[in-house]
Design goal:
The structure is a single chain. It is built from 4 helices and 3 strands. By secondary structure, the protein is an alpha+beta fold. It has a 3-stranded mixed β-sheet with strand order 1-2-3.
Length: 91
């Protein structure tokens, strides 16, 4: 997830827009990996959905948007950031 955020989105952008990739699932349509993306408000998809979908497709994946509580999204992002910081220190 960190690589997707770093390469195609950004941690700050994800926080500002309350959206984050958080897992993978096999797509029911083609049985390939699909990125699960949490978004706090489905109405925001009209503004940012196309950009997110395009970024995820550049990484070679389909995506599935799931509406989630904004506090949970921020917690996921903070956990991913902490893991990234740990890797940078350990690295």
């Amino acid at each position: 997830m960190n690589l997707l955020i770093q390469k195609f989105l950004s941690f700050s952008w994800c926080k500002e827009n309350l959206i984050t990739p958080f897992g993978f699932e096999k797509s029911s349509s083609n049985n390939e990996a699909c990125v699960l993306i949490a978004i706090s408000n489905f109405s925001d998809l009209s503004k940012i959905g196309k950009d997110v979908k395009s970024a995820i497709e550049k990484a070679g994946f389909d995506c599935l948007f799931i509406e989630e509580n904004s506090l949970k999204i921020l917690a996921i992002i903070e956990e991913l950031e902490a893991m990234q910081s740990y890797r940078n220190v350990d690295g």
